Amino acid sequence: xxxxxxxxxxxxxxxxxxxxxxSGQAWERLCGDGPREFKRVSAAKPCCWGIACxxxxxxxxxxxxxxxxxxxxxxxxxxxxxVTGFCEKxxxxxxxxxxxxxxxxxxxxxxxALPSAHWEWEQDWHLDHNCHGExxxxxxxxxxMDFPAAYTKEQRWNSCVRRRRWIRFRRYAARDAWxxxxxxxxxxxxxxxxxxxxxxxxxxxxxxxxxxxxxxxSLQGKVWYREGVCHHNPEGSSWSLVSAPGEAVQIxxxxxxxxWATLWEGQAAVxxxxxxxxxxxLSWTVVEPPDPACGLLHVSVxxxxxxxxxxxxxVWFRRGVNSHNPSGTSWIGMVGELVMLDVxxxxxxxGVGCEERAVLFRQGVTRxxxxxxxxxxxACGRDGDRSQAGSATSLLSAGCFFTDDIREQxxxxxxxxxxxxxxxxxxxxASTCGEDGRGEDGAPACPGVSALSETPPAPExxxxxxxxxxxxxxxxxxxxxxxxxxxxxxxASSALAETGSLGSFGLEDPLLADERPLWAWVSGGACLVExxxxxxxxxxxxxxxxxxxxxxxxxxxTSAWRTQILQQLSERTRRENQDFQHYEQARPSVWVKTGSxxxxxxxxxxxxxxxxxxxxxxxxxxxARDSILFLYYMHFEEKKYIHxxxxxxxxxxxxxNEAKHSFALYTPERTKQRWPLRLAAPxxxxxxxxxxxxxxxxxxxxxLGGHPSRRAIWSLTCKGDVFASEPTPHLEDPARPDPxxxxxxxxxxGHLRLVESSSRGVTWGLGYDHTAWVYxxxxxxxxxxxxxxxxxxxxxxxxxxxxxxxxxxxxxxVSGYSSRGLPTDRxxxxxxxxxxxxxxxxxxxxxxxxxxxxxxxxxxxISGGTDREGWQYAADFPASYHGHKTIKDFVRRRRWDxxxxxxxxxALWAVSDKGDVxxxxxxxxxxxxxxxxxxxxSVSIGSFHQVWAVAQDGSVFFRGxxxxxxxEGDGWYHIPSPPKQKLKQVSVGRTSVFSVDQNxxxxxxxxxxxxxxxxxxxxxVSNNVRRVSVGPLDQVWVIADKVQGSHSLSCxxxxxxxxxxxxMQPKGLSWDYGIGVGHIHSFLYLSALLSHPEGDSGRITSxxxxxxxxKFRPRTKQQNYTSQKH
Length: 1126
What we know:
Elements (H helix, E strand, L loop, with lengths): L6 E6 L4 E5 L6 E2 L8 E6 L3 E6 L4 E5 L7 E13 L3 E3 L10 E2 L19 E3 L4 E2 L2 E2 L2 E2 L6 E3 L16 E12 L5 E3 L13 E7 L12 E6 L4 E5 L10 E5 L5 E6 L5 E5 L4 E5 L10 E5 L8 E6 L4 E5 L3 E6 L10 E14 L5 E5 L5 E5 L10 E4 L12 H8 L5 H8 L81 H6 L12 H6 L3 E5 L24 H32 L9 E12 L7 E12 L5 E11 L2 E8 L5 E5 L5 E6 L1 H6 L3 E5 L2 H18 L11 E5 L3 E5 L19 E7 L2 E4 L5 E4 L5 E4 L29 E8 L3 E3 L10 E2 L19 E2 L5 E3 L12 E3 L16 E7 L10 E4 L5 E4 L7 E3 L5 E6 L5 E5 L4 E5 L10 E5 L7 E6 L4 E5 L4 E5 L10 E6 L2 E6 L5 E5 L2 E2 L4 E2 L2 E6 L11 E4 L9 E6 L24 E2 L6 E4 L2
Antiparallel strand pairs: 1-2, 1-32, 2-3, 4-5, 5-6, 6-16, 7-8, 7-9, 7-15, 10-15, 11-15, 12-13, 14-15, 17-18, 18-19, 19-20, 21-22, 22-23, 23-24, 25-26, 26-27, 27-28, 28-29, 29-30, 30-31, 33-34, 33-39, 34-35, 35-36, 37-38, 38-39, 40-41, 40-70, 41-42, 43-44, 44-45, 45-72, 46-47, 46-48, 46-52, ...
GO molecular function: lipid binding
Pfam family, one: Tectonin
Subcellular location: Cytoplasmic vesicle, Autophagosome membrane; Lysosome membrane
């Protein structure tokens, strides 16, 4: 289905620009500042470039929730002297008094100028009072012994130099408007007026996100490339001349690394060598036209396709095009005559017809059949046209958007004595046109688009003519190597099809002929069309009309015997009920399911043992169900068994094991021991069946059904599985709280990285690809997806996860860098730490729900930079890595990637993957950007609108003046971090604030009062903590590591803080250890929000995860969430 914001761009013959939204049904005139007439446009998802009639280049940037803003910075440098102290008088060898961070570039505050008139300053210059996450002293100065050196916030006896940073933000203001690309003032650098341009390049391998490639052709035949076009600089910086093998006429750039241009001589020039380091490419290769007598006029490229038009307007398809062979192998002649064509997203093809000037779409384009099957004309009207009045309006509003459908329904029937044309017989005249000229059911199709019909109509039979031989069976393969057959003289049927005032479109109202759109250009670079889910412009063929008269006659004939049978069945049912009324009620039923599994023996030596499994379910007279799971095994030739009451099971989880399809059952006693009951099935499907059955039995025994309540506690596992637990009334009882290990966790479904819940029933989550999802209340999902009790509100959820491995090498004087390391070195293929061996072949997906989507590739986006081959260098393992080789570097590494495909009154805050802070008012439909001076990592909002956040450098901030009337607040206040610690997460409750640092220490903020919400100091509470979640009544839950069990230390254990009394004992007294699965399975995140009379504001925490370079896309995802893009 079309993605959010997906739209088709087009220009009519009068130069007016229109857009057709994927969710709309009519062309909308693009209104905005700038020129009124354009020659052509080239669209991408974030923007659209165009050439106006004045030959100037313009860009149209869509407005979004996040502003386009850039930070400018300048450093003020001073040196100490014994006479005047610190001053701006520096040594001749020193840096500039005002410079950049390196000191090599002079940057005075008055020397900063906006790139163009479309930028504006947000605010004046101001000091940055942050130094490595700590607030600086008065004046923002940091001190060092000399330039350059390590700077500190304290002035020492040997601090001879100091500097401070001034920052200022600029914002791009020309959004939702045409902005003219500024021309250089130097006449020698001024490019010629442009005649064509193309935008693409956003899918080049490992290219920085948001970067675009803009190519253009001038009137003198020169090729130009726009430098520096990216998300933060949508206009780019300058034009660069690219040498061409001849005078270029037109150019096309695909989403990946394909760039083709047509030359004045009729040939095509293909740009080779395009990659992330050389977006302009290295050289050109000339491709000959399909017909030497009629050269190429227009080309358009996608990811793996190239379409072209020759000077006689014929359409051609290039075979064998890909990234390794951008020139392709041969030309294939296609059907139709077009003015121009354009390849959009997913290699879908759009064009403009020659005769009717209609926008055409190539149907049937898939990955396996890139050439498609047929052309289809769009008949969407324009807003405000007279063509939307009368009968045509009713037809279009009823879903008939294509002209052949309208032709059939608006045309009148044959007059008496007049023979109906063969083209219009039958009910399927609106079927899709195929390349063989016939509809899907074999009837002649699309009489209106006669110019694009591939097979000529059969000649009429004269009297006495013999019956033709039956046609051969239709082949499954269509031959697209053949050119269009010669067109015969028009027959009566084809002549009749062209009698309408709109020619092939068949609209008979003469008023519509003058006002129908005549198109000159179309661009599909921002229009996402999936073959299996086209937008509303492509309705299904109309169903066959029913023959009502014979059907009514048949019903009249059969009504008598139907009534007689119904009466006999009713009488039989009544007698049977009376005969069995004296029988006693049925006894409690027993249902048994048996099977063969393997059990991980709990005593040494631990090993897998074959067992027979029996699940017995009892249904009592009151309808209540109870279940027991029996495991029968042999021990020293003696039959023994183990039984588990399912009403005592606290959680069922799948276990990732390369050799076994296993799962684990926990009970309160086994939770204390950290030793679950582990079972394995022969196949993945059997394992899922057993988990689904056991989960359903556990929920039935506890009378749990439907979605979790507002009081539920949510949790995530390391694999991203979502679980929820319904708290008992005495869970927070100060005197005798219910044990945490007796809580029952049921799988909700879905796959998330973070989850946050509000006591008002609003639950949000974040996927590994930073997509926000909102829970809609579906069934259990997961392994229990087939047993969901609520199929409503179901939406398909997808996710992408990144994982990486490192290739390590050491230098030796004989062979240079090689995979032979020292005995004390790390593995040559390892993780980031080097302690775990990770090879390409042995790196597996984390769970069966994920599937690989691509092969391994080198990652160039790692922090610290890389060389052209992706290597990072250092003096030894481990050390600080950099992207260039020096004489002291003896080791190097590089990272490899692989893809897998894997309410009113509630305030919601989030952090984007770029560190921007967002606020969603009332959980509405748009995000509000909250300005920050540095990228943030985590944010949390409490019950009374207390907003705390953690920056990526570990510093803590408090948002002031946040209220219901001003939900975004008015400013950030820096809070000192704990001594020598950098925080990574913060959680806010009603009157308390807890945080976790990067070393796993849990901290409590003292001194928080309504008059002083920032608090006074940090107090250490515990260690070995991964995450913390504070509820609206200051309940404290954490995910802890190294929890002692009877067999081993447990990782990822859910722990509840006991003795928490707000105002009296806010830190609590001790921990109650709950579910935890040792090294097999661990919980990563938990959201604990219980309802209370005053309610709470909810919160969402977004954490930026650095790209981990193996992407996963789940094969079977849960459908209980809806995506919330921003």
